[in-house]
Amino acid sequence: MGAVDKRLAELGITLPTPASPIANYVPFVVTGSLLVVSGQLCLGHDGRLVAKGQLGGGVSIEDGQKAARACVVNLLTQARAALGDLDKVKRVVRLGGFINSAPGFTDGPKVMNGASDLMVEVFGDRGRHARTTVGVSALPLDAVIEVEGQFEIG
Prior knowledge:
Layout: H1 3-10, E1 28-31, E2 34-41, H2 61-83, E3 89-100, H3 108-123, E4 130-136, E5 145-153
Parallel strand pairs: 3-4
Antiparallel strand pairs: 1-2, 2-5, 3-5
C-alpha cells in the first residue's frame, strides 16, 4: 500500500470502481508528464448522486461541499485507474469545478472548497492547485457539481 492509499485509509476513504463515461469521451488522458481526468460527477459508492439540484435553489453550501468531496473521490479513482498507483502523482496542478447554480448564486467558490480541501488533505502541499469555479444552469443527471482535474505525474 502506497503513501497516498494509506492517507486515504486514515481519512476513511475507499475508492469505488471507476465510472464508465456516459458519452463519447475517455475518462482520462495521459500525455507526457500530465494526467488529465475528465469531469466527475458527485456519485457515491452506490452509484447515486450525493446531491442533486441547484445551489441557491434548495441545496445548501454544506451539501454542495460534500458533493464536491465525492467528485474528488471519483477523480482519484480515475487517476488510480490511469496510473495504477496514486504515489505517481507529483502535484495536483488544477481543478475545474462546475456548480449547478440558481440565478444569482455567487458562493460557488465556497462549494468548490470541498474539493480543494480534500486534495490538500490527501496530498498535503502537493495537493495545492490552481482552480476555476464556474456557475452553470444545469449538469448531467441534475448533479450539484462536476469536477475535472489535472495532475503532474512521474
